[in-house]
Amino acid sequence: MSWKRSERLIDMTNYLLNHPRELISLTFFSERYKAAKSSISEDLTILKDIFDQQGIGKLVTIPGASGGVKYIVKINEEQVKPFVSELCQIIADPDRLLPGGYLYMADIVGNPTIMDQVGRMFASKYADKDIDAVMTVATKGITLAYGTARYLNVPVVIVRKDAKITEGSTVSINYVSGSTKRIQTMLLAKKSLKDGSNVLIVDDFMKAGGTINGMISLLNEFNASYAGIAVLVESEEVEDRLIDQYTSLVKLSNVDVREKQISVHEGNYFTNS
Predict the structure, then answer these.
(1) Confidence at 272, pLDDT banded by 50, 70, 90
(2) Low-confidence winner among 10-14, 105-109, 180-184 (lowest mean pLDDT)
(3) Topology agreement, domain 5-73 and domain 77-266
(4) How many whole angstroms separate alpha carbon 269 and alpha carbon 229?
(5) Is 42 exposed, middle or buried (0-12, 13-18, 19+ CB in 10 A)?
(6) Which residues contact 239 (CB under 8 A, 6 or more apart)?
(7) Confidence of residue 231 (pLDDT cuts 50, 70, 90)
(8) Mean residue pLDDT across the chain
C-alpha cells in the first residue's frame, strides 16, 4: 500500500497520541508507510509545528541509530483556563452540599471527559519529570490516576485501606489523618511497585494532607520517591497543612452549609512552577 502524505500525517498523529512518552524509531514509520526516512522526517517537522501551535504537545527528536521521536503532552495554559473556570462553577453548585459540610463529587470523578482533561493537565505539568508510576488511594482518586497515567504512559498503583486477597502480600503503615488526627492504616501490594520507583501522587481532594503524607511514608517502605503531588481540589481553610509542595486545580475557600454557599476558585496550577 502506498500512503499519501495526508494519510501518513493522520495515521502518524493518531499513533503518536496513543503512545505518549514512547520512543518511536524513524525506521518503524518508514516501514509502516513504505516511505523514505527523509519523507518521514519532513512529516514529523509538519506535525511538530502543528502540535506546538495547537497546544497538543511537543515532539522530541532524538538523533542517532537508536534515536527516534517521542510525543510529550504539553498543554497551552490559555486553552485550559476556560476549562478550570467551568469546573469551578460546577463545583460551586450549592446542590452539591451534603450533611456535615461534605461535597458530592462522584459525578465529577466519574465523568470520563473531565477526568481525561484533568489527567492531561497533570501529565503536562509533570511531563519533564522522570515518572515510573502514578499512585492514588482508593477509591475516588482512581479515575483521576488513570486519566493522568494514560498521558504519562505509566502504570497506576492503588493504595488501599483494607487488604484484598487477590493482591497477595502487602506492606502496611499507620498514619495520622491530618483532619481528624486519628491513626489510620493504608497498605500496598508488594508486587505493585518496584523498588526505587519515582512516583507521581494524585488525589481527588486534599484537606490537611494526612492521606498524601501517608502515601509518602508508604513509598519509603519501597525505597521509592515521589516526583510530585497533584490534587483535583484542595481545601483552603486548613491551619496545619502537612504538605507544602503540590499542584491543585481547584481551591475550595469556604463552605457555608447554612447559607448553602460554596466558594471556589482556581488552584495553584497556573502559578506553581
Answers:
(1) confident
(2) 180-184
(3) no
(4) 11
(5) middle
(6) none
(7) very high
(8) 92
DSSP the chain: -PPPHHHHHHHHHHHHHTSTT--B-HHHHHHHHT--HHHHHHHHHHHHHHHHHTTSEEEEEE-STT-EEEEEE---HHHHHHHHHHHHHHHT-GGGEETTTEE--HHHHT-HHHHHHHHHHHHHHTTTS--SEEEEETTTTHHHHHHHHHHHT--EEEEBSS--GGG-SEEEEEEE-TTT--EEEEEEEGGGS-TT-EEEEEEEEESS-HHHHHHHHHHHTTT-EEEEEEEEEEES--SS-S--S-EEEEEEEEEETTTTEEEEEE-STTT--
pLDDT at 164: 82
Ranges of each domain in the chain? 5-73, 77-266
Q: Cα Rg for the chain, rounded, in angstroms?
A: 21
Mean per-residue pLDDT for 122-151?
Answer: 96
For 5-73, CATH gives 1.10.10.10
Contacts of 63 (CB under 8 A, 6+ apart): none
Which among 222, 235, 251, 243 is positioned nearest to 87, based on CA atoms? 251
What's the one-letter identity of residue 217?
S
What's the rounded Cα separation, in Å, for the pair 60 and 62? 6
Choose which CATH entry (3.40.50.720, 3.30.70.120, 3.90.226.10, 3.40.50.2020) describes domain 77-266: 3.40.50.2020
Q: Give percent of the chain above pLDDT 70.
A: 99
- The reported pTM is 0.93
Residue 187 has pLDDT above 70, yes or no: yes
